[in-house]
Design brief:
This protein has helices spanning 13-27, 39-50, 112-122, 138-146, 173-178, and strands at 4-9, 56-62, 65-74, 95-103, 128-134, 150-155, 164-169. It has 179 residues and is α+β, with helices and mostly antiparallel strands.
């Protein structure tokens, strides 16, 4: 069966929060000992992103079972993750920050991750999209490159977080040449 995708916004967070937490717990079951990937920490991120009025989330259900999700929000002007990596700043302005893209193990390698990603971004008005990828996962970075992203730098957003590749897509060709 092909999973059904549903879109949710800021006001839907109370209804979808536990679904996101359950998918995360399953997706990161092998990394339960890693403090950065604990469910409690992830819950903080869900609440942080979900509190933004521009929060946008797509959830996949397969035969009634939550299979994965993607969510993010408009990046605050001047606080985009690409700042400090590109000079001059890209024009036009406006960046969607893809915070999480997660698929449960049983649905991995089915194309679901790209469906979630594309469905989320296709409805966004921002000309740029950014995301962070753990630098110890080069295959994930390579996958995002096939979706039009390119690595523009690295950053560690929190003292206990992994080192992430900062990835960006949507730059016009002239801006890419200057970067």
């Amino acid at each position: 069966m092909t999973p059904t995708l549903t879109r949710h916004g800021h006001t839907d967070l109370p209804a979808i929060r536990q679904i996101l937490l359950d998918i995360h717990a399953d997706a990161y079951a092998a990394e339960r000992d890693d403090p950065f990937h604990q469910t409690e920490k992830f819950a903080w991120f869900v609440d942080h992103w979900g509190a933004r009025p521009s929060f946008d989330c797509v959830i996949a259900h397969d035969d009634g079972h939550p299979a994965g999700f993607a969510y993010g929000a408009t990046a605050a002007l001047g606080r985009e993750t690409w700042r400090g990596h590109l000079s001059p700043a890209p024009v036009p302005n406006g960046t969607f920050a893809l915070s999480e893209l997660m698929v449960r193990p049983a649905w991995r390698k089915t194309g679901l991750a790209q469906r979630l990603h594309d469905t989320l971004l296709d409805a966004r008005p921002e000309p740029l999209a950014t995301l962070l990828v753990d630098t110890t996962h080069p295959r994930v970075q390579a996958l995002y490159e096939t979706w039009g992203y390119r690595k523009i730098g690295e950053r560690r957003p929190f003292p206990d977080s992994p080192l992430y590749a900062v990835m960006l897509r949507g730059l016009p060709p002239a801006a890419e040449e200057e970067a």
